[in-house]
């Protein structure tokens, strides 16, 4: 039997431009791998939550709709994981970075067409979405892929440098015309390869992540009674689904939600 954590499947879905309605209970349809030759979709689950993560490795924001684009999800002008923190040497910062797990404790909200970020004892940082290159372009690297982003200013730099106690921490934003990375897809039910048809920006491997609440519940049921329980938030999905069996998503070849 595989380890419990490796058994949790955060499924990836190939992207096309469309809108996922955020209303709770929207049906999820799938083609089971066993019946993929029939190309017949059947109802398998319901959408429970939609979440977008404007800044990589910061908390997500629950929303009532998501637009699915060719390289990730979008809510109004805000694109998923389109902001990125880098250190003084322009290396990517995530919660995995030493001393940066506290990024998970920040509070984010959309307000006045801006992204507001709050932290104890710091003034609220208010970010507008950049639509063009209006400052220095920072060169960085995301999991081995050269990437770039536009510097978001001294106010953002001071906010995150103080919060993380790391001098030189900068925030950058990806602009749509800047370079993208090849996404990852699964082939032959196991092998994962890069594919330029599904581009991503600062995401780890896929532009859209889905997780099954029943799979998370199953994991928690197997943990020792005194163990800290996990949550869907630990897996940072864009779409949380419910009303299906644990790990049933492992059997889905294709997934459809509304027009996506």
TrEMBL record:
InterPro entries: MoCF_Sase_C, MOCOS_middle. Keywords: Membrane, Transmembrane, Transmembrane helix. The keyword Secreted does not apply. PROSITE patterns: MOSC (PS51340). The chain crosses the membrane at residues 12-32. Residues 179-260 form the MOSC domain. GO terms for molecular function: catalytic activity; molybdenum ion binding; pyridoxal phosphate binding. It comes from the Eukaryota. The keyword Membrane applies. This is MOSC domain-containing protein. It comes from Oppiella nova. The lineage of its organism: Eukaryota, Metazoa, Ecdysozoa, Arthropoda, Chelicerata.
């Amino acid at each position: 039997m595989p380890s419990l954590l490796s058994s949790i499947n955060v499924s990836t879905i190939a992207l096309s431009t469309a809108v996922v309605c955020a209303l709770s209970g929207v049906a999820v349809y799938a083609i089971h791998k066993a019946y993929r030759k029939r190309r017949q979709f059947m109802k398998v689950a319901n959408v429970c939550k939609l979440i977008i993560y404007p800044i990589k490795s910061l908390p997500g924001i629950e929303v009532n709709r998501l637009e699915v684009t060719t390289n990730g999800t979008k809510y109004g002008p805000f694109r998923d994981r389109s902001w990125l923190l880098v250190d003084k040497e322009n290396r990517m910062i995530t919660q995995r970075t030493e001393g940066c797990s506290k990024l998970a404790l920040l509070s984010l909200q959309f307000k006045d067409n801006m992204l507001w970020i709050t932290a104890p004892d710091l003034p609220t940082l208010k970010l507008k979405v950049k639509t063009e290159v209006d400052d220095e372009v920072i060169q960085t690297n995301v999991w081995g892929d050269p990437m770039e982003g536009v510097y978001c200013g001294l106010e953002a730099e001071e906010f995150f440098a103080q919060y993380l106690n790391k001098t030189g921490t900068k925030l950058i934003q990806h602009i749509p015309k800047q370079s993208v990375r090849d996404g990852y897809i699964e082939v032959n039910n196991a092998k994962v390869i890069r594919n330029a048809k599904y581009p991503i920006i600062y995401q780890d491997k896929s532009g859209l992540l889905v997780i099954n609440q029943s799979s998370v519940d199953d994991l928690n049921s197997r943990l020792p009674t005194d163990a800290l329980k996990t949550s869907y938030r630990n897996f940072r999905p864009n779409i949380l689904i419910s009303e299906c069996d644990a790990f049933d998503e492992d059997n889905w070849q294709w997934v459809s939600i509304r027009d996506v």
